[in-house]
Design goal:
This protein is an alpha+beta fold and 387 residues long. The protein is built from eight helices and 21 strands. α2 runs parallel beside α4 and α4 packs parallel to α5.
Length: 387
């Protein structure tokens, strides 16, 4: 029995010691799917089961290939699963150079090469490191080599288990653009484990939201961020990321104009090449609501919107999370505002109300506007198209 060639189908249920896991979700065969949740909720266990390093009852099919199914007693051994696994610690071979570590990943690789050595080196910025020993590398450099080694094993699926967790702040900032470049350049599907919402906002296309060994929800990142019934909207740093295109440069005031679904947004600086698609992050704390368009405000982004829902942020209902859709008719991108109960009552806010969203801050999620190697072409793989 084969699976759907467009998805990674995961269904696992069982007990490991005192921990119960019971999950079912589907991830696309392209882009980055983040398993997100607090430590100890089962994220790494799922990754290890996908790799075949642990076994729980259930079914696993990757792009149409069944790797595990208890009914016909199928279980593909770890060495026979075409996965690249990147751990929290780089775990490089100390007796090999960077070049030796990278080529080690090619030894058991599929002869049908889809990621060439020179491409992996360029994508991860490793050209100047090839002759070095691993002891001479920084934490971020070590992790980039580990990612390159995993890519050069020619996997059908890349598994990343909190690859930034062991790094300090500067090292994380160093490696994130390379992960973005990987996402932009390759159609290889990635399952990425994290408990850091900032990483998820920056990298993920799809999110599997987990807690206590269960899936709370799964779907597009933007949908889950603006769902009033899910915990993401209740985080102190609640925000929504939206896709937008750089369409104009205001050279007089040093601003870039982005076109998003439902309106235009101004972002300070020369944020992106015109025509480029970028992620914009809008924090709930940076959105205020008015009933008319203010003309005497320093806030530049004032967009018409419609209220979709209001729900209490806390048990005392002192603050409310307001989900909005941009545009006069409310057909645009969803964003979230956080208002007090008094503001709700004074403005008589309710689902369907027409308002203006005043957005104090709009931030590019990707650093510097462009990933370091945007010129690399996306590659097609069996069972998955370009993201």
């Amino acid at each position: 029995m084969s699976g759907n060639p467009a998805i990674i189908d995961v269904r696992l249920a069982g007990r490991l010691g005192t921990f119960d896991l019971d999950v079912a979700f589907a991830a696309p065969m392209h882009g980055i799917t983040a398993l997100f949740g607090p430590s100890g909720c089962g994220k790494t266990t799922i990754l290890r089961c996908i790799a075949g390093l642990q076994r729980l009852p259930g079914r696993l099919a990757v792009g149409g290939e069944v790797w595990q199914d208890d009914a016909p007693r199928i279980f593909r051994r770890p060495h026979a699963r075409p996965v690249g696994y990147v751990f929290q610690e780089a775990s490089l071979f100390p007796h090999l150079s960077v070049h030796g570590n990278l080529t080690y990943g090619q030894r058991r690789a599929d002869p049908a090469e889809t990621v060439r050595f020179d491409e992996a080196v360029e994508l991860l910025g490793l050209g100047g490191l090839l002759a070095r020993g691993t002891a001479a590398l920084s934490g971020g450099e070590r992790q980039r080599v580990a990612i390159g080694r995993a890519l050069l094993s020619q996997p059908r699926l890349l598994l990343m288990d909190e690859p930034l967790a062991a790094l300090d702040g500067p090292s994380r900032d160093e490696i994130l653009p390379y992960l973005e470049a990987l996402h932009a350049a390759l159609s290889l599907p990635v399952i990425y484990v994290s408990h850091d919402i900032a990483e998820v906002e920056r990298l993920a296309d799809t999110v599997v939201l987990m807690d206590h060994g269960r899936v709370q929800a799964s779907g597009r990142l933007t949908d889950l961020q603006a769902d009033p019934n899910l915990p993401l909207i209740h985080l102190p740093q609640a925000a929504v990321t939206i896709e937008a295109t750089a369409v104009e440069r205001d050279r007089t005031y040093g601003l870039t104009v982005f076109s998003a679904e439902g309106g235009r947004l101004l972002v300070p600086g020369k944020s992106a090449t015109l025509g480029a698609r970028r992620r914009l992050r809008i924090s709930a704390a940076d959105v205020s609501l008015t009933l008319s368009a203010a003309t005497d405000s320093s806030i530049l982004n004032k967009l018409p919107a419609r209220i979709v829902s209001l729900a209490p942020q806390d048990a005392d209902a002192i603050q409310f999370n307001v989900v909005l859709r941009l545009g006069a008719e409310g057909h645009g991108a969803r964003i979230v505002a956080r208002v007090t109960r008094k503001s709700r009552d004074v403005l008589q806010l309710a689902p369907g109300s027409a308002v203006f969203a005043q957005i104090k801050g709009v931030a590019l999620v990707t650093a510097g506007g462009q990933a370091p190697h945007d010129g690399l072409k996306r590659k097609e793989r069996p069972g998955g198209g370009a993201p």
